[in-house]
Fold this protein.
Amino acid sequence: MASAKLLEKLNQAIAAELQASIQYMWQHVQWKGIEHYAVSEGFKKIAVDEMKHAEKIAERLWYLGGRPTTEPSPITVGNTLEEMVSFDVKAEAEAISMYKEIMDIAQREGDVATREIFEEIEEEEEEHHDFFTSLLEK
């Protein structure tokens, strides 16, 4: 059975994914100006990716005997385009760091399935981080 620490980290990951999904979807809706047409669909796609991550993590947590949270981490949409993207870069960097920690815990506990799930998700988070950092570099 999974440790309490791993179950807690999985719930933190779910909260972060819910936060990201809502944050990015609202940014997709609120993004204005000429740049809107170039990147709006990217925000929407990433928001959906994040919701799928939350689902995958919740399914794993439930399988391991935990109860998935329904509360997102604090959502910070931002007021300007630069502020929005800065919040998103930070959220993705934090997720990548947390997922590396979860992979380490899962590895120590011999939980290969959880480690593999997070390897896949972490790779997608790096792609999201790249998308947002590219927007800041424009």
User: Anything to note?
Assistant: The helical segments are 4-30, 34-63, 81-108, 112-137.
